[in-house]
Design goal:
- About 45% of the residues lie in helices and about 30% in strands.
- By secondary structure, the chain is of the alpha+beta class.
- A 5-stranded antiparallel β-sheet has the order 2-1-5-4-3, with helices on both faces.
- This is Roadblock/LAMTOR2 domain-containing protein.
Length: about 120
C-alpha cells in the first residue's frame, strides 16, 4: 500500500494521501505537520462512507475544505477509501482524473498478483 501512495502523491495535485479501511488508516504519506488533516479525514470519511453503504447510495466521492486545504475521499471498494490532501484551489477534476488513473494501476496490480 505504501508504494501506491508514492503514485498517488503528485506535485500540484495531491500533497499527501492515505488509505482507510473502515475507521483505520492502513497506509499514509501525511507528514507530522499535516497529521491533523489525516485525523479529520479518518473521522469524516469513515462516517460518510459508512452511511453511504447503509443507504445503498452510489456516492463514491466526498470533499471537505479546511482553511486553505481540501480533503477528498474516494470510495475504492467496500470499506476502502483513498484520501487525498490538496490545496484548496487545486481543480477537483484534476484530482479526480489522477485518482481514476491510480485506480486503474491498482486494478492492474491486483490482476497481475492473481495471475502470478
Amino acid at each position: 500500500m505504501n508504494e501506491l501512495l508514492g503514485t498517488v502523491d503528485k506535485e500540484n495535485i495531491v500533497e499527501s494521501s492515505c488509505f482507510l479501511e473502515g475507521k483505520e488508516v492502513t497506509a499514509s504519506s501525511f507528514s507530522k505537520a499535516n497529521r491533523h488533516y489525516e485525523t479529520v479525514a479518518r473521522q469524516t470519511f469513515s462516517y460518510i462512507f459508512l452511511n453511504v453503504g447503509k443507504h445503498k447510495s452510489k456516492h463514491n466521492e466526498a470533499h471537505l475544505e479546511i482553511g486553505d486545504k481540501r480533503l477528498s475521499g474516494f470510495l475504492l471498494k467496500a470499506n476502502r477509501v483513498l484520501v487525498c490532501l490538496s490545496a484548496k484551489d487545486t481543480n477537483i477534476v484534476d484530482v479526480r482524473a489522477h485518482v481514476q488513473q491510480v485506480q486503474r494501476l491498482m486494478l492492474k496490480a491486483e490482476v497481475d498478483r492473481m495471475l502470478a
